[in-house]
Write a structure and sequence with these properties.
Keywords: Glycoprotein, Membrane, Repeat, Transmembrane, Transmembrane helix, Transport. Pfam families: ABC_membrane (PF00664). Helices cover 78% and strands 4% of the residues. By secondary structure, the chain is mainly α. The protein folds into two domains: 2-324, Up-down Bundle (ABC transporter transmembrane region fold); 347-383, no CATH class. The longest helix has 52 residues, at 59-110. The radius of gyration is 33 Å and the shape is elongated. The termini are far apart. 23% of the residues are buried.
Length: 384
């Protein structure tokens, strides 16, 4: 239940129109995944018709045309479904993103000085934070979530279609889907982890370059050009090493796709036994093998997106924390006494003040002051 609430927090800024768009996008993503096994099913029927044809068979062309027309209908449906999937998810994210950015900026402007003193190291961190967090959520809503739904529905639909076509072969090949998860999970987890570290390295190098450019006069004055270049090069070197690790991980993950070919070989051997002794058709067992291998790899690709979901939840929590924070001095709070008449005289008595980040260092201690602005002006007039 807690995990469901955390994932639901990603959509907390959605209105009625966004719910409709997400519903249509959900329909499109599931339909996109179901289309693939349906094509494999029609292809199996087409191969059976081709393999069972004989010279002078009048029904052969009729069966071929019927399957070709079915593929044409599926192609048109696929175009519509994929368009709905891509448009609705992208559109709803743009609507939610503008709403989130507006609320975040309003919440930041609402905060008092203590918030910036304790939580923000520089004013650019506020812009960077909302940009990186919203872009992360955008990546999840517009791409990762539809991709996960599509792959999950493709996995379920592939095995349902396989059971319908040839249930015995499907039962034998069902346990192999665990091995098919390895390429997708390896590629997803390894590449995501390394990519995050590369972004951190680029962030450190970018901060060095930003400091050097913003303080370029000081750098020139002390002759530190070579020192700053060497420091920047050392920061970039970390990303180079991570890039080599990324290439190695990607090569291992792509190479592990050979597992699917091994499963294909075993299923072909077992399917040939069913063709010889159980009356199965060649096109049917061929389509079943494709569905099993395609469904397993689709699930592996889909599960690799779960890490982005957790990161998006954390990003949403950071944004919501700022939006829901009520400062001690709330500029939007109209409660309290409103003065009708205000005189231009200010007086402080026994004022104590220290910065929230340095409470042990008082700035004012029993400070007293009275406005003497009028007296100063009179003296100036007399001197003239």
């Amino acid at each position: 239940m807690k995990c469901f609430r955390n994932i639901r927090s990603i959509f907390m800024h959605a209105d009625g129109v966004d719910l409709i768009l997400m519903g249509l996008g959900l329909f499109g993503a599931i339909g996109d995944g179901v289309i693939t096994p349906i094509i494999f099913f029609i292809t199996g029927l087409l191969l059976n018709d081709i393999g069972g044809s004989s010279l002078g068979d009048k029904t052969f062309m009729h069966a071929i045309i019927k399957n070709a027309v079915a593929l044409l209908y599926v192609a048109c449906a696929s175009w519509v479904i994929c368009f709905v999937e891509g448009y609705c998810w992208t559109r709803t994210w743009e609507r939610q993103a503008s709403r989130v950015r507006g609320k975040y900026l309003r919440a930041v402007l609402r905060q008092d000085v203590s918030y910036f003193d304790l939580n923000v190291t520089s004013t650019s961190d506020v812009i960077t934070s909302v940009s990186s967090d919203t872009l992360l959520i955008q990546d999840v809503l517009s791409e990762k979530l539809p991709n996960f739904l599509m792959n999950a529905s493709a996995f379920v639909a592939s095995y349902i279609v396989s059971f319908i076509m040839l249930w015995r072969l499907t039962i034998v090949g069902f346990p192999f889907f665990i091995l098919l998860l390895i390429p997708g999970l390896m590629c997803g987890r390894a590449l995501i982890s390394i990519s995050r570290k590369i972004r951190e390295e680029y962030t450190d190098a970018g901060s060095i370059a930003e400091q050097a450019i913003s303080l370029v006069r000081t750098v020139y004055a002390f002759g530190s050009e070579r020192k700053m270049v060497a420091k920047f090069s050392a920061a970039i070197q970390g990303s180079v090493n991570l890039g080599l690790r990324q290439g190695l991980a990607k090569g291992i993950a792509i190479g592990s796709n050979g597992i699917s070919y091994a499963i294909w070989g075993f299923m072909t051997w077992y399917g040939s036994q069913m063709v010889m002794y159980h009356g199965a058709k060649g096109g049917t067992f061929f389509a079943v093998i494709i569905c099993i291998t395609s469904g397993g790899t689709s699930l592996g690709r889909g599960l690799s997106n779960l890490k982005e979901f957790s990161e998006a939840v954390v990003a949403v929590e950071r944004i919501v924390k700022v939006i829901n924070r009520v400062p001690d001095i709330d500029s939007e709070n109209l409660e309290g006494q409103i003065l009708e008449k205000i005189k231009g005289e200010v007086q402080f008595k026994n004022v104590k003040f220290m910065y929230p980040s340095r409470p042990e260092t008082p700035i004012f201690n029993v400070f007293q002051w009275k406005n003497v602005k009028k007296l100063t002006r009179k003296k100036k007039k007399k001197s003239i």
